[in-house]
């Protein structure tokens, strides 16, 4: 295999989009309590104001703000108590000039009131009169109807990954079922004569299988459903049959290893044969991650991905391509990076997008420092020691110490 006409990461991404143009992610409805981590398949609009009535944010007395002007610790204002609001019930009292009504936190604000004085600044002068020791402006300690969410407002956008907070938003709107994207199903295949299961003790020339577990965990983190996995010897026929079988119930088949130029590296030829129009990417202008193969089979609607065998490179490429593809097809947000300063001069690979792992340190003056984590792409410990990565564009020679960079989460 020859990795000469390699694609940039952006070219590979656009080829995936083009190849999977008709492969729309399916949608399903989920009960709200089971929806955490799912991706919204539609915008959510508020069908009503939240809250739908005016509420107090404190325990205190609802007043006309003008009545409290001039009140202070030594000169209180005396107001007649017109009643009390009960929690969880409507309010039929009205505040007029010279009167006040007691309201608990979260209670309904009575008609006529435009401010609430905290109970700490009030004293009962008698059963029917309160001394107010604080002047409050109009709107003090009141949440107006619709302050949280206004009727008709888009409160959650398509592509939002549902968190406990967003599920709380849906509950506040009375929404108990949501339409979300059905996770893409992924099959993971790791190849190599040297691989043994993590529970086994490696013999001479053997290593424990890392990629199956790393890609499995990253797939779950990104919201995919893992439909199966396998660890295979370097036998082309075995890889072909396993991948072909996996295509029957998978949206994506990922093969790690066997994509470089070694004698037993057959991933390229297998993907080239299984994809209806052959492999469309035969390598990436990316360091690490050059030996990456991509193809798409239209009849089975399966994306075929050949990842590098080195664990750090495999997981980075998986996130840069497969993670990006899912986010793009479902309307997800681009990951928000940290802004930091690079801690040292850092050279880049000529003609390649360089992905450099870094860990972050907070300086005494508040600056965030991105410190490169050096190590070969075959070392999984480089990933575990990193907080994220920076990307150095193909046309840059490198980064200078102190240069501002964007650090993306792994």
From TrEMBL:
Keyword hit for Repressor: no
NCBIfam families: Glp_gephyrin, molyb_syn
Keywords, ordered alphabetically: Magnesium, Metal-binding, Molybdenum, Molybdenum cofactor biosynthesis, Transferase
Enzyme Commission code(s) on record: 2.10.1.1
Catalysed reactions, as listed in the record: adenylyl-molybdopterin + molybdate = Mo-molybdopterin + AMP + H(+)
Pfam family, any one: MoeA_C
Function description: May be involved in the biosynthesis of molybdopterin. Catalyzes the insertion of molybdate into adenylated molybdopterin with the concomitant release of AMP.
SMART domains (alphabetical): MoCF_biosynth
Cofactor: Mg(2+)
Pathway: Cofactor biosynthesis; molybdopterin biosynthesis
Parts of the chain that traverse the membrane: none
Keyword Electron transport: no
Protein name: Molybdopterin molybdenumtransferase
């Amino acid at each position: 295999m020859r990795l000469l006409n390699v694609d940039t990461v952006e070219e590979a991404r656009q080829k995936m989009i083009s190849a999977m143009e008709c492969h729309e992610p399916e949608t399903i409805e989920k009960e709200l309590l089971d929806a955490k981590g799912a991706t919204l398949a539609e915008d959510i609009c508020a069908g009503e104001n939240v809250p739908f009535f005016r509420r107090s944010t404190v325990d205190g007395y609802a007043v006309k703000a003008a009545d409290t002007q001039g009140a202070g610790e030594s000169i209180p204002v005396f107001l007649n108590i017109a009643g009390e609001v009960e929690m969880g019930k409507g309010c039929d009292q009205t505040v007029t000039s010279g009167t006040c009504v007691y309201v608990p936190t979260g209670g309904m604000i009575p008609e006529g009131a435009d401010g609430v004085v905290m109970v700490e600044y009030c004293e009962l002068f008698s059963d029917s009169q309160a001394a107010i020791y604080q002047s409050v402006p109009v709107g003090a300690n009141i949440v107006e109807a619709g302050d949280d969410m206004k009727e008709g407002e888009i409160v959650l956008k398509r592509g939002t990954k549902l968190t406990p907070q967003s599920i709380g938003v849906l509950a506040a709107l009375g929404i108990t079922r949501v339409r979300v994207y059905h996770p893409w199903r992924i099959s993971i295949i790791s190849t190599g004569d040297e691989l043994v299961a993590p529970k086994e003790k490696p013999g001479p020339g053997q290593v424990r299988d890392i990629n199956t577990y790393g890609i499995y965990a990253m797939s779950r983190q990104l919201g995919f459903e893992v439909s199966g996995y396998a660890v295979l010897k370097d036998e082309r026929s075995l890889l072909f049959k396993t991948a072909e079988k996996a295509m029957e119930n998978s949206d994506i088949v990922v093969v790690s290893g066997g994509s470089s130029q070694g004698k037993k590296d057959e991933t390229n030829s297998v993907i080239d044969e299984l994809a209806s129009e052959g492999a469309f990417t035969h390598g990436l202008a990316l360091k690490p991650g050059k030996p990456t193969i991509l193809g798409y089979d239209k009849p089975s609607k399966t994306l075929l991905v050949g990842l590098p065998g080195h664990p750090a490179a495999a997981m980075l490429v998986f996130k840069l391509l497969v993670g990006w593809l899912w986010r793009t097809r479902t309307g997800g947000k681009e990951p928000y990076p940290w802004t930091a300063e690079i801690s040292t001069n850092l050279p880049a690979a000529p003609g390649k997008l360089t992905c450099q792992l870094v860990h972050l340190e907070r300086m005494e003056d508040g600056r965030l420092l991105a410190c490169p984590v050096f190590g070969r792409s075959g070392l999984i410990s480089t990933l575990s020691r990193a907080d994220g990565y920076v990307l150095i564009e193909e046309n840059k020679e490198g980064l200078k110490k102190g240069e501002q960079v964007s650090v993306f989460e792994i």
